[in-house]
Design a protein that fits this description.
The complex is a heterodimer of chains A (309) and B (222). Chain A is of the alpha+beta class and 309 residues long. Chain A contains eight helices and twelve strands. Chain A has helices at residues 17-38, 68-73, 86-89, 115-121, 148-155, 190-194, 246-250, 293-296, and strands spanning 100-105, 111-114, 125-132, 137-147, 163-168, 185-189, 199-204, 207-208, 218-220, 233-239, 274-277, 284-285. Chain B has 222 residues and is mainly α. Chain B is built from nine helices and no strands. In chain B, helix 5 runs antiparallel to helix 8, helix 6 crosses helix 7 and helix 8 (154-168) packs antiparallel against helix 9 (174-202). Classes of the chains: A alpha+beta (309), B mainly alpha (222). The interface between A and B is medium-sized, with 29 and 22 residues.
Chain lengths: 309, 222
């Protein structure tokens, strides 16, 4: 005999998986926080910890964000290994605290910041940016950061300063040897560095930046290929002459100083016309300046982007 | 130790299953969503690496036979070679379907413009006649000598495979280097054998009467 009885649980009563996952994360964060408050201040800065209320930004993209898990397990951070999964597995090789970041070179007021100072300098902002890797994949990442311009202002660049060099942490004892000329470095023109889109990121998804994403502080320049975003910065140096970056040294014909996202200028070995957004099945067209033309194109008027790739 | 025909069939059946393991693991990884953030890249890379590995394994058969005296292993070679082709075909299909989504214009441009795709594609094209002439029937039809010279194409094919891998990596060439060193050793062996043969001929070793060392065996079953 068939017993007709409605299900015990109404579909509307079933907890949405997103909700319970969020609850789990909340519990984990609460745990981390409880632990953090029990530790001395210097050790409190740990991945996964919430960065508190964040100012929203008009520059944020409205596209759907890449999954946290994808953004924190698929990384290019050669110091921690050259496979995409390596950095997340080798986080013990880099200690993000204590940490200091220097601003030096052609500045009137050289600065040295501890990471805690850096977090309190200006209100932290959430910046949801597209990130396009030179390898042909992309993500949408909600960074937490501060505009680089405000930091540069504190250091008061001298009139002769035309370029900014970014230097990453390197420890020969624990990090990858060979492959690139360490320490990793990158560079921007001073006007690019001062562009309101350029930030120093200290977090993502509202939390402290995980090691594999470049903890504790990294550069994010959303209209350029991802490798421009030097990770785990120890120095920002103002220079008169254009610095030669790690990738320019590794392959001068393949990686230029500008590295602006440009679907019309191919990498010598592969096309840059399309990209695979991580999490999506089919490819999408790559946008000029990664879709940030309105904010950045004026800086390059009159520049031959094919020559200055 | 020479297995009889029944034992050899069993060995072949087991080897067949073993050769399918990488495909099974890949399929399971896809089903369980454990291929990482970029599964299409993982599938492309995995099938490509197994193509190269099976090519190198196939090239190990002759040295193994020569140095171990297990002449029967040569009867496993066809299956290994066909698996190299199968993984290569899967690799190409991944590129055509999952990566480019049959955008023939983009594919044609890629093959013509990107040297690493050109050589990879050339390697697979060159493998096709080898796979097509692998049956006993075609071996008989072609004749052993012609069949053999055709199938020596595996040497340039494996070289193209290594170049394909080398040219696609961004900077860290460790892995393509490992494959290339193994291939160089396997090809070097053959060059060395040839040199030995040449010296033997120069010394007039064959003038009196050709001499067989070991016993003559058929390399394919009837």
């Amino acid at each position: 005999m068939l017993i007709r009885r409605p299900a015990d649980i109404l579909p509307s009563e079933i907890t949405d998986s997103g909700l319970y996952l969020a609850r789990r994360r909340f519990m984990a964060q609460a745990g981390t926080l409880a632990l953090a408050s029990a530790l001395p201040a210097g050790l409190a800065h740990a991945a996964g910890q919430s960065l508190g209320p964040l100012a929203k930004s008009p520059f944020s993209a409205t596209e759907s964000q890449t999954l946290y898990k994808a953004a924190t397990t698929y990384n290019n951070f050669y110091e921690l290994g050259t496979d995409k999964e390596d950095p997340a597995q080798n986080t013990h090789r880099l200690k993000p605290a204590p940490w200091t970041l220097r601003i030096e070179g052609l500045v009137n007021k050289p600065q040295t910041f501890g990471i805690d100072q850096l977090l309190k300098l200006v209100p932290l902002e959430e910046r949801i940016y597209r990130m396009r890797c030179v390898e042909g994949w992309s993500m949408v990442i909600p960074w937490v950061g501060i505009p680089l311009a405000s930091l540069l202002k504190l250091a008061d660049p001298q009139g002769s300063a035309k370029y900014v060099e970014f230097v990453s942490h390197y420890d020969k004892a624990t990090m990858t040897r060979g492959v690139l000329d360490w320490p990793y470095n990158e560079g921007l023109r001073l006007d690019e560095a001062r562009n309101p889109l350029t930030i120093l990121a200290v977090g993502l998804y509202g939390e402290v930046l995980p090691v594999q994403n470049g903890a504790p502080v990294r550069l994010v320049v959303p209209w350029k290929y991802g490798f421009k975003g030097a990770k785990s910065l120890v120095a920002i140096r103002l220079l008169e002459k254009q610095p030669t970056t790690a990738w320019m040294k590794a392959g001068p014909s393949e990686y230029g100083f500008y590295a602006n996202v440009n679907p019309e200028v191919d990498h010598p070995r592969w096309s840059q016309a399309t990209e695979r957004r991580i999490g999506e099945f089919s490819k999408r067209k790559t946008l000029m300046f990664n879709g940030y033309t309105d904010q950045v194109a004026s800086m390059y008027s009159g520049l031959d982007l094919r020559r200055y790739f | 130790m020479t297995p009889d025909n029944r034992q050899l069939s069993a060995i072949k059946a087991i080897l067949f299953m073993v050769c399918l393991i990488p495909a099974f693991l890949l399929w399971r990884g896809f089903e369980m969503d454990s291929l990482g953030a970029n599964p299409i890249e993982a599938i492309t890379r995995n099938t490509g690496e197994w193509t190269l590995r099976f090519l190198l394994i196939t090239l190990c058969v002759t040295p193994l036979r020569k140095y171990s005296g297990w002449h029967w292993v040569v009867r496993l070679r066809r299956m290994l070679g066909l698996f190299a082709f199968a993984y290569g075909a899967a690799h190409l299909s991944t590129y055509l379907w999952l990566d480019q989504f049959f955008d023939w214009q983009a594919i044609a441009k890629d093959i013509l413009k990107r040297p690493f795709i050109t050589v990879g594609f050339a390697a697979l094209v060159l493998m096709t006649p080898l796979a097509l002439t692998s049956s006993n029937f075609t071996i008989r039809k072609l004749g052993g000598r012609r069949w053999q010279s055709l199938h020596r194409a595996i040497y340039p094919i494996a070289m193209l495979g290594c170049i394909h891998f080398w040219w696609l990596v961004k900077k860290d060439v460790t892995e393509p280097l490992i494959y290339s060193v193994i291939l160089a050793a396997l090809l070097g062996l053959r060059a060395w054998w040839r040199e030995l043969e040449r010296r033997k001929q120069l010394a007039g070793g064959y003038l009196q009467q050709p001499r067989f060392e070991g016993k003559v065996i058929k390399i394919f079953a009837k």
